[in-house]
UniProtKB/TrEMBL annotation:
PROSITE patterns according to UniProt: GLYCOSYL_HYDROL_F2_1
Gene3D superfamilies xref list: 2.70.98.10, Galactose-binding domain-like, Glycosidases, Immunoglobulins
Any matching Pfam family: Bgal_small_N
GO molecular function terms listed in the Swiss-Prot or TrEMBL record: beta-galactosidase activity; carbohydrate binding
GO biological process, one term: lactose catabolic process
EC number, UniProt record: 3.2.1.23
Species: Enterococcus cecorum
Beta galactosidase small chain/ domain: residues covered: 722-989
InterPro entries according to UniProt: B-gal_small/dom_5, Bact_Beta-galactosidase, Beta-gal/glucu_dom_sf, Gal_mutarotase_sf_dom, Galactose-bd-like_sf, GH, GH-type_carb-bd, Glyco_hydro_2
Protein name: Beta-galactosidase
Listed PANTHER family: BETA-GALACTOSIDASE
Lineage: Bacteria, Bacillati, Bacillota, Bacilli, Lactobacillales
Length: 990
């Protein structure tokens, strides 16, 4: 047999691996260690990334009776390491959320288990071999791996997101050595890695050798006790494991490189500490020498405190977690993510004022935490445990079966192993403040044990486990080591009543505001609650990025993204993986811009004649050096003037007042946009719109009225009215109560209209849309009962229509009484009083759709923009006179859905020569799109959309909010359309 069957044996988790210890990279010289920019610079770091020989076998059965030497000669392909097979053309992509991808029969996995055999060589000299021991490190292999050196099996390991280390010393020879690694797609660990993601395999994180001194320290801890009152820290180096006693010395440098302390004591005191926070990520360099090895640790001094009365604090100041859940996922490389890309993501998070990360749902590569220390994030580090699939077994009670494995002592070791491998390597990391026992695995004695083990490993940091929510009712579940109560997607009311009014522990949302598709619309509501209750320490949005696979490329060579089911997989969860704040290629979703606005560090308001600027950061001082402030004055949405503002200094958590010189302007709505610019990136940091004088808004001059001395000539039969003037020709359908055509100077401007209640369902309409379909909102038939035409003046004709909209086989949805007034100067006023049938579900929208034929795709609007906005998702938008195009108004969700709505609009024009204008005293919202609502409802991927001949303009008097019901609570009633009377009034000018 090629290998012993460890992969279906939960008593054999790791064979011949080294004991877990803190992550570090030794150097052979102190200066070198201090100066190194990356670990590759260590002379004993032997990078094994790069191309390896590779053979993929769709079933392990094909090679079980071969021997490794034979197999090593049979390679015909190469594969980059790190990578996942599925992104390199092997096997197939598969996305499943809760359901296990394999038959549930632990510890057994399919006999036809796909495998990849990786081989490469490396050369070691006599000198390298005699001076060092050599250890082989894998930072992530999915799902398990066997390792051979020179055809001798060295060992085995599993836990996809854990570091495994093998001591190769006894197996190596001078000169060329052959390293082979057999990776299996499935193993007994698969039952513990049921995370909601694409299931990918292979050596997906770095591999390297480290030369270690024969006499060495294997494991050490840097304890820090930081007293923020005294700005003093006590540092203690604890040796946990060593192969021999070696001498020790240390030197500590500040960020500028100035020596602060040095000596040979394992404990020392530091004064005048420059402390670390996510806002001010100041890192010292601690150089350690253990015998012949030098290690440079970057550490920050900080103190986290947590209790139910004051919540979470850092260095004595209240800290709310404005966090995000982050999976490792890129469309081209899948779960394999380079540090450059991690940095790119983290910088993007910083730019959007995210201050915390939950490493959902597994630990990251060690270098990731160094980035978090450097850039400043609070990290909730999660163990690689998810057993969610037990709730989908047949007829065992769904969620009532959650605790099946959590409470089965056979699996205690498996869970403890996973929890400790997420803690032990990272106990010296500055940014980690709390350990999470895993995700969605139920509760029971194994997690009680895991929590106590986590406490023993690190009594200082806090412990989290949301699965406690599934603890047995009527059972004495142990929660003394649980530092917080945690929930995902509860309603606000539930949070308040069950956890906040009389809190027993601090409370956190490990997931909320599910950012799937168009949304989330409830960020502000959660934030209000967090601010209201000290015990509510914050939360993490689900989630950072859309997960995708690349299906092909378009003509511009841009990738076309796919999701579950697009790779031919039978069991999948569709686009449920498209739920990030950024698109797969890191284009920003509007939801992230809303988040950014909500957590803007600078707030502005007007008090009497002053502009008050408030700094809500606890540790950052803003000055003219690091913050530029621009004041843009707008009258009726148009910029009249702008100036820069000198702020001198705004201390943390404080305000300044600046006298306001209000420009002298005529009548109208005077507003101030306060825009601050990011200290480093020069990007917009925060933007706030303030209204100075609430006066009647003046409609812009581009909403011009025309004059005409024409008169209407009228023809009618039972089917239609025809109105004719010198320039205009109108056909009105008496059977549908709608416009058939509107022609100006022989050019068609409008070629049809209809009332619309339907919107292309957004992901957050996932549940409610069933009732919309049931109620037939998508297939409403207009029925006209009565039409009447009255020529009020020679220039003005009024058509009244009594009608309803009724779906096939259902009752009336809405009754309408509409007056269409046609003027010879090109105006059409439309006024409707509608009665919604309250037996019916709440409406997605109430609006009029017009098929317009503009000459260009230019759009100008006086309303909320520039980003799409809805009643509950409009934080990032502001009121102004915007000029854009139909193409730019489209928000390209990977799975098409309602998008690009703009509320609070007073005027709108489309086309170059002001082809269609709509204005009203009551603001409306509009969409103008190259895609019909039907297309957006039915097409599965954005790259499959086909532009229609002419755009569709929809003017809504009502448009429902978006919420986050794709996984979160139902849309707040405030944002639903469930009133009985719906009024609609607009005027078009053609
Ligand atoms: C949670 C889970 C996440 C993800 C999310 C839905 O229940 O913890 O992993 O599945 O729901 O997108
Ligand atoms: Mg899950």
């Amino acid at each position: 047999m090629l290998i012993p069957n460890y992969y279906e044996d939960i008593t054999k988790l790791h064979i011949h691996t080294c004991a877990q210890h803190n992550y570090f990279i030794p150097f052979s010289d102190g200066k070198q260690a201090l100066a190194a920019k990356n670990r590759q610079e260590s002379p004993v770091f032997f990078d094994l990334n790069g191309n390896w020989q590779f053979s993929y076998y769709s079933s392990i059965q094909e090679i079980l009776s071969a021997n490794i030497a034979e197999l090593e000669t049979m390679h015909h392909h190469e594969i980059p390491v790190p990578s996942t097979w599925q992104t390199q053309g092997y096997d197939q992509q598969m996305y499943t959320n809760i359901r296990y991808p394999i038959p549930f029969d632990p510890p057994y996995v399919p006999v036809d288990n796909p495998v990849g055999l990786y081989t490469r060589t490396f050369v070691l000299s006599q000198e390298q071999l005699s001076s060092n021991d050599w250890h082989l490190f894998f930072e992530g292999v999915d799902s398990c791996h066997y390792v051979w050196i020179n055809q001798t099996l060295v060992g085995y390991s599993q836990v996809s997101h854990a570091i495994s280390e093998f001591d190769l010393t006894d197996y190596l020879k001078v000169g060329e050595n052959v390293l082979s690694v057999l990776v299996l797609k499935w193993c007994d660990g698969t039952y513990f890695e049921d995370q909601d993601k694409f299931r990918q395999s292979g050596i997906f994180r770095p591999v390297y050798l480290l030369g270690r001194a024969k006499q060495r320290v294997n494991h050490y801890l840097i304890h820090q006790d930081y007293d923020y009152h005294k700005k003093q820290a006590v540092v203690q180096i604890e040796i946990v494991d060593q192969s021999a006693k070696v001498d020790f010395e240390y030197a500590l440098f500040d960020e500028e490189g100035t020596l602060q302390s040095k000596g040979t004591d394992y404990q020392f005191i530091l004064n005048n500490i420059h402390e670390w926070t996510a806002e001010t990520p100041y890192l010292y360099r601690l150089l350690l020498r253990f015998g012949h090895e030098w290690i440079c640790e970057k550490i920050g001094f900080r103190k986290f405190e947590l209790d139910v009365k004051q919540g979470l604090r850092i260095n004595g100041k209240t800290l709310k977690l404005h966090g995000v859940n982050q999976h490792d996922s890129w469309p081209d490389t899948g779960a394999s993510v380079s540090m450059e890309r991690h940095r790119q993501d983290l910088l993007l998070m910083k730019e959007h004022h995210i201050n915390a990360i939950r490493t959902s749902h597994y630990p990251k590569s060690p270098e990731f935490y160094q980035l978090c220390d450097e850039l400043g994030f609070y990290v909730l580090n999660e163990a690689d445990v998810e057993i969610h699939g037990v709730v989908t077994l047949y007829d065992v009670g769904g969620d009532d079966n959650y605790n099946m494995i959590a409470n089965d002592s056979n699996y205690e070791q498996v869970i403890i192993d996973r929890v400790s491998s997420s803690i032990v390597p990272f106990r010296n990391v500055t940014s980690i403040f709390m350990w999470s026992m895993g995700n969605e695995s139920g509760f029971g004695k194994n997690f009680e044990k895991a929590l106590s083990v986590a406490y023993e490993l690190d009594p200082v940091r806090f412990r989290h486990y949301e699965g406690y929510f599934h603890a047995y009712k009527d059972h004495d579940n142990e929660d003394k080591y649980l530092s917080v109560y945690s929930r995902m997607y509860p309603t606000l009311k539930e949070s308040e009543q069950d956890y906040l009014i009389s809190p027993k522990k601090p409370y956190i949302l490990c997931e909320y505001s599910h950012a799937m598709g168009n949304g989330p619309g409830d960020l502000a509501a959660y934030d209000e609650l967090m601010e209201k209750y000290p015990a509510f320490i914050g939360g993490f949005i689900w989630e950072w990025c859309d997960h995708a696979v690349i299906l092909g490329y378009d003509k511009q060579n841009k990738p076309q993204f796919g999701y579950g089911g697009d790779s031919g997989e039978e069991i999948h969860d569709g686009n449920f993986c498209m739920d990030g704040l950024v698109y797969p290629d890191r284009q920003v979703h509007v939801g992230l811009l809303d988040f950014k606005h909500l957590h803007r560090p600078i707030r502005a308001k007007i008090e009497q004649n002053d502009l008050v600027l408030e700094n809500v950061r606890a540790f950052t001082t803003y000055t003219d050096e690091n913050l530029a402030v621009k004041l843009i004055w707008q009258l009726n949405g148009q910029k009249v003037t702008q100036n820069e503002l000198s702020i001198q200094e705004i201390k943390p958590n404080s305000k300044i007042k600046c006298p306001l010189v209000v420009p002298d302007v005529q009548e109208g709505l005077l507003q101030l946009l306060v825009v601050t610019f990011h200290p480093e990136t020069k990007q917009v940091y925060a933007r706030e719109q303030l209204t100075l004088k609430q006066q009647q808004l003046q409609l812009p001059t581009w909403v011009c009225s025309k004059t005409s001395s024409d008169i209407w000539r009228i023809q009618e039969n039972h089917q239609k009215y025809q109105l004719q003037s010198e320039k205009l020709s109108v056909v009105f359908d008496r059977l549908t109560g709608q416009l058939t055509t509107y022609v100006v100077n022989s050019k068609t401007k409008i070629s049809g209209s209809r009332w619309l209640i339907w919107r292309a369902p957004i992901d957050n309409d996932r549940s409610v849309k069933e009732s919309w379909y049931q109620a037939g909102f998508h297939q409403l038939c207009p029925r006209v009962y009565e039409t009447k035409l009255v020529q009020k003046t020679p220039q003005q004709v009024e058509i009244t229509v009594k009608s309803s909209l009724t779906p096939i086989y259902r009752q009336r949805v809405v009754e309408l009484l509409t007056t269409w007034t046609f003027y010879c100067d090109g105006r059409i006023s439309i006024h409707t009083k509608a009665q919604r049938n309250c037996q019916m579900p709440s409406f997605p929208r109430f609006g009029l759709e017009l098929k317009v034929q503009p000459d260009t795709s230019q759009v100008r609007y006086l309303g909320n923009g520039p980003t799409e906005n809805y009643q509950d998702k409009q934080l990032a938008s502001y009121f102004a006179d915007f000029q854009t195009t139909i193409e730019d108004l489209y928000e390209p969700y990977i799975k098409p859905q309602e998008n690009g709505s703009h509320g609070n609009t007073y005027a709108l024009s489309i086309g170059n020569k002001v082809q269609v204008q709509a204005y009203a005293n009551q603001p409306f919202s509009f969409n103008i799109s190259d895609y019909s609502v039907e297309q957006l409802s039915n097409v599965q991927h954005r790259h499959e959309l086909v532009k229609e001949a002419y755009p569709y303009l929809i003017i809504d008097s009502h448009h429902a909010g978006v919420g986050s019901n794709s996984c979160g609570p139902v849309l707040d009633e405030r944002y639903q359309i469930n009133q009985q009377e719906l009024d609609f009034e607009i005027t078009l000018q053609l």
